[in-house]
Records
---
Amino acid sequence: MVPTERRQSLEFGFRFNRTVGNRISTVEVPVEKLMLTRDNKLIEIEWVMHFHINRPEDYVFNLPGVSGEQRNSPSGIPAEKERILRDLCMAAMRRIFAASPFDDGLTAGKERIQEYALNSLQSTFDELRIGIKIDEVLLQDTNVSESIRAEYYSVTTAEEQVRNMLYQAEAHANRVVPEAEGRAAILINEGEAYKFRRIAEAEGEAARLNLLQEAYHLNPNLTRLNMWADGMTEVWQKLKVVFVEGLGETGGGGTLKVLPLPLDVIYQDLRGGEAR
């Protein structure tokens, strides 16, 4: 009798074990777990293949092995048939991992490996006509081999530190570069404004001198008088009124506008010091 309606499973890298009280535990099979990746790193894989028999005549006659309870393995499959199936599956999976990068087997590449393993194994089974239809291939657990675990984590930590430093540098650049560009834009705008202001002042001064030259040609005396008055305006604004005693022919008091000299100089002059 061939159980065509029953879904069967083969575990690789481990085995289910029923203990007392029908508790199910697992037992590791190290020889099946260890695989070599494309970048020459060791990885440990536990996986399961679920399948059913869809062509019993091919399963009985084309897959070697003697049926019978005395030859059955714990999986319920005759021992010889199970050994051949395991050899085919292990060969296919080792070939797939030998062509895959190490990181794919640990992270994002697991789904791709599962799909590729299913298609590859099904193609092999169909070519051999052993009457088995694969339902799914599941990678249960993938891990770094214990023999390289310490070195792997050391390299991973170093790579993570490098990535963090790159992220920090990029964040610093994203913060500093806009600030520098903003300061540069402000300096450029201030320079342009200063240039326009100086040009406008120079043009205004040139226009004023041209007008002054024309006025001088028309009336030199009046122009010189106006220029002298303009120049003295700043001087007159700084003049101060100082009260000086004993000034004048009669010896009376009086006032005199003088330049804003320091007070000690003024007092020295009033005491008969050298005139300045």
Note: Strands lie at 8-12, 14-18, 24-28, 34-36, 42-53, 132-144, 240-244, 254-258.
---
Amino acid sequence: MKTLFVESNQRFAPVIEDGRLVGAVTRTDLLRHLASSVGTPPRSGESSLVNHGGRKYRASQIQRLIRNRLPKRIQDLLAQLGQVAEDLKLNVFVVGGFVRDLLMDKKNLDIDIVVEGDGVAFAEAFARQNDCRVRCHHKFGTAVLIFADDFKIDIASARMEYYLRPGALPDVEHASVKMDLSRRDFTINTLAISLNPNNFGALTDYYGGQRDIDEKVLRVLHNLSFVEDPTRVFRAVRFEQRLGFKIGKQTEHLLNSAVRLGLMEKVSGHRLFSELYLILNEPRPLPAVSRLARLDVLRQIHPKLTSKIDYSKSFDEARRTTDWYDLLYTGQPCERWFCYFLVFTAVLNRLEITSLAERLQLVPRYSDMLNQQRATALGILKRLESRHEGMRQPRSSSLYRWFKPLSTEILLFMMARTSQDLVRQWISHYITHLREVQPLLTGYDLEAMGFQPGPVYREILDALLYARLDGRVVSVEDEKAFVEKKYVQKS
């Protein structure tokens, strides 16, 4: 059965009795069975993925945590959600990471609501009674409540998801909250708190999430978890490193099996990129990247990204340069995660980085930075680092011409990449002093001086800019004299 469903990517298996076909078992049937039987005591000699026991919170304790650990606005919203559900005779729960982090006393205001019934109708009813908009996705039974300050709450109908093949997006069916929780990635994310007024604060824990939180262990719910969604490999590592947990022994065995089966190859580039983005957006991404390398996961993204690479030095340099840039308060944004991505993939040559950009289905902006800008930056670095000691420092206008076409992220990548302090100082000088320099004269001034509007304006203004960068003009009068001397005025 395992060979048919996992290795051969079979959607169903025949059931034969006495040589006769009597039925079939589908992948959905198997997943439903796993979900309904998850958490049942194992037979003698078997190990269970899911733990039970441990701490048990009473509703009054959860109510106290909500009062003590959540802002008043969130407390009121949870109560209002419960009241709307009560009016509609529905059961409603807040679920997932919000509940996990509430128990762990970690800040998390990403609210996910599950409704036993029609989640879209519930969201629309809530929006009518409160000052918010609603965006509905009827196909999936989900909706988003959007408040005036752009605060959002995700609403979903309790559902069962099943996957026709590894790495595919799921098909959806309505189900109970227990079935809905059974499709979650890890036991610590299967907790749910009832919001209905008569049961407010009651904690539902079908799969041992409380105990795994106490033991700081990350466990999947069933043996096919990484098969039905291989991106859970990335989430396992991300949660492990962020929360200071340890992936359970059996879960790590299943993870390694999924990697050996090459299931990551079946995942779309967009989904792979999304998981990498989340990891590199962590406050400290290095531990997760190093762990992925040791688990041989990074090689599924590109064969050169192996555990033999020591990422620590390059990540530390990227962190230092981005910290430095943040302190400048330039007003120009910098995507820190992309700086990490650049140093993380620095071992790849131009053809390999192009192939990776295509595999991850990067949007044009990131693809351009990875392909054209990265190649340009590495070429500039090579020239600057090869300058002999004692050679004249590059002119400011030269630095400007070299660095102006490059994004902030690429410039910071260059600073992290170079081993020469002098080169790092030149890039720093461009960012802090040269990048925003402009000539004082404008097109209106040139017209007043007798120049007819046209391409010559760009030529003159560029010449003025380079003269100002190199200190050859300082005042408006200097610029006018420069233009009158260099260009023939048109009558």
Note: The chain has 24 helices and 13 strands.
---
Amino acid sequence: MEIGYWLSSEEHASNDLVRYARQAEEIGFTFVQISDHYHPWIDRQGYSPFIWAVIGGIAQATERLQLQTAVTCPIMRIHPAIIAQAAATVATMMPGRFQLGVGTGENLNEHILGEHWPPIETRQAMLKEAIEVIRLLWQGGLESYSGHYYTVENARLYTLSDEPPPILIAASGSNSAELAGRVGDGLISTGPDAELVQAFEGAGGKGKPRYGKVAVCWAESEADARRTAYEIWPLAGLSGGALNTELALPSYFEQAVEMVTEDQVAERVICEADPDRYVAAIQEFEEAGFDHVSLHQIGPNQAGFFNFYQREVSPRLQNGK
């Protein structure tokens, strides 16, 4: 099991994200995942930088750290031909260290150009075609593409890495997991769902990497942690699913979380400074078939979390306890 660090672009300023990535490398995290949004989920989170600029900073600030977008939506807000160029450029700046994580996106970020937000089945078909466009352009040379959703005319990427980066696909349901198994180089998910992994492997994903995520909030006291998690990430108390993909504005999410309680958030976010809780949560993903897990520290106290992880959690993981 490899342990990584989640870069929450909705919560932190651009230069801070670069700094946190460097610190994550220094204390032993092997990879980071960075969220790709146009809007934060709620206004209180406060940020949402253009992550391709941030990634350029991370490329220069780190030496060994693997980085993965988690995830980029290449179907509406940004044409897949542009994502192909952005990812190819990053791959030359971080040789062997970059992975393109993609998914079907959320209305929250993708509606901004005034296009109709399609149903999930259409978005999955668009994602499949977008991946075809990206991989075609990564072959080099002058390329054209005429598909159902995308057209590329006489395009050539001149900045390419020796080996194209892997493309991993986010999934929360069996159809997306099967798509990831068929056309992706790995799986990204947020819950320890063994059935999801089975669907992924059954569709061709066996032997490919599988990434999960654990939400935590370390603080000096459990009360402070619960309060911070509730203030910054009340979405943890929502049931998720279609709600997360269909709401169009941060203000809509703020309305949706009005009925969420602090106790509900604490049920889904580790809000206590017990390293065994962290280890148990990671082991739950391992038992479900995941081989990578990133830790998302909610709130501004990233330094306290880093110190706690290095002092209390990492030794237990290394000792297999």
Note: The beta strands are 2-7, 31-34, 66-69, 98-102, 143-146, 151-155, 167-170, 187-188, 210-216, 292-297.
---
Amino acid sequence: MISHSRPTLDDSDRKAVLSVLESGHLVQGEKVACFEKDLAAYIGTKSGVAVSSGTAALHLALLGLEVGPGDEVIFPTFVCGALLQAVSYVRATPVLADIDSRTFNIDAGSLKKRITKKTRAIIVPHMFGLPADMEEILSLGIPVIEDCAQAIGSKYGSAKTGSLGKISIFSFYATKMLATGEGGMVLSDDEGILERIRDLRDYDEREDLQLRFNYKMTDMQAALGVSQLKKLPLFIWRRKEIAECFNRCLDGGSALPPVSPPGREHVYYRYVILHEGDSASFIHDMRRKGIDCRRPVFKPLHRYLNLSGYPVAEDVWRRSSSIPIYPSMMNGQRKHITEHLQALLTRGGH
């Protein structure tokens, strides 16, 4: 079975982690500080705070903006449950927006309709590696948290995603664009916000009993992150190369990938296609051929909350499939995918 996603690791990654093991200093230390500095420099922000997961990063980003009970936070429904969880952690009110049918990112028009006097922040995920419409969203004057969990290295104009909002968050889960196993980071140019976040990520040896968290990253994870970040341009190049093969395979067919508007660089964390009908049979048929395809979002958030009024997200969720794509994919695996992808789509019914 060709995995839907998997990490890309080599000897340099193993040596980086082994050096930490040999040093005897495993927890948060110099390697974490190095990873924070390197990622901030790569994205183009002043500084960063490394934490234990992308969800922890989002939780602390909300606290850094002082979001709490009575506040509303807007984000798209077509996204993983981490956003809903993080907003719940701070006891704010989640407000869901619909998505753009062409890019699968948050729809600015739907977003604007949901703004109230209680709106305290907007979370903007750059879905599947394609940047969202940041210019229009930033013009609203509401603090924006860029969710770059799927889009590290992508660009909006000449700027990297993660450098545009008030805060940006990243995830380094095992199958993300770069991997530390688990882990995340918050980046910002606002040192006041980052200082609050640094204070909140660790509760040990404090003079007061303010609520804090055990959200630290280890030096083992950070060493792997530093090593992976050096190879990120190569990872992105490889993802684009595979995506181009899939694009040629789909050219002229009925199943289509999302549109990449001018000035937005797609890094293809996921290769998502939209079918004419429900994607369930296509996913089933591809798995029978040894190719693990999935719906790109397990379930849109409005379904968890029993809400209606999200027609685009509902339609995209029903008709979309995510095709395996990752830098460690072998050429033979890529060929196997394209052959069966083309055969199934040409045969019709998908």
Note: The chain has two domains: 11-230, 232-347.
